[in-house]
Design a protein that fits this description.
Elements (H helix, E strand, L loop, with lengths): L1 H19 L12 E13 L6 E14 L4 E14 L6 E13 L4 E14 L6 E12 L3 E12 L4 E14 L2
Antiparallel strand pairs: 1-2, 1-8, 2-3, 3-4, 4-5, 5-6, 6-7, 7-8
């Protein structure tokens, strides 16, 4: 219940930030909005390290720059966890909002995803609160970043991994 309250509170705060902008001022252009598509690779840690040895995934994002340095967007994709000997492979589908802070038009950034992670091929556990802080480097076309992904799932199981990701920016024309 606490996790649900946290998600709702953050969602309401995000809506207030977005609504604070005048709707007439928000224009989607190739200079401020684009898609990001890429791949991730990680090593499961904590509870998930007992069941899986490595994970790989697809990262899909839509981003809008609300200032020259701050971006908001939505993130999804798929993370596949390759099981150790006596277990079965399983996956996680995140559905999250995100915020990033870019220090300069080219260089370092940091940010985080926050949403819900849906588990696949797992009995008695549908998923939970998804948090994915990141720090990385970007330029006009590419982003490369390190991450610590944590999904606080049901039944006191935390799905965690540490890894790297690479995304390509697909700009509107």
């Amino acid at each position: 219940m606490k996790k649900l309250f946290l998600i709702v509170a953050i969602g309401l705060c995000s809506i207030n930030v977005i609504n604070a902008q005048n709707a007439e001022d928000v224009k989607i252009t190739p200079d401020n909005s684009w898609f990001k598509v890429g791949m991730t690779a990680g090593i499961p840690v904590g509870d998930s390290g007992d069941f899986s040895s490595v994970n790989a995934g697809l990262d899909v994002r839509a981003q809008h720059m609300i200032t020259p340095n701050i971006a908001i967007g939505v993130a999804s994709g798929y993370n596949h966890y390759f099981a150790k000997d006596d277990f079965e492979d399983f996956g996680m589908i995140p559905l999250a909002g995100y915020v990033r802070y870019y220090f300069m038009p080219k260089g370092f950034f940091f940010g985080s995803d926050l949403g819900y992670g849906f588990l696949t091929n797992v009995d008695n556990n549908s998923g939970g609160l998804y948090v994915n802080p990141q720090i990385g480097y970007h330029n006009y076309d590419w982003n490369i970043y390190g991450y610590f992904q944590n999904t606080f799932t049901e039944n006191d199981f935390n799905l965690q991994s540490v890894g790297i990701g690479v995304t390509y920016n697909i700009r509107f024309k």
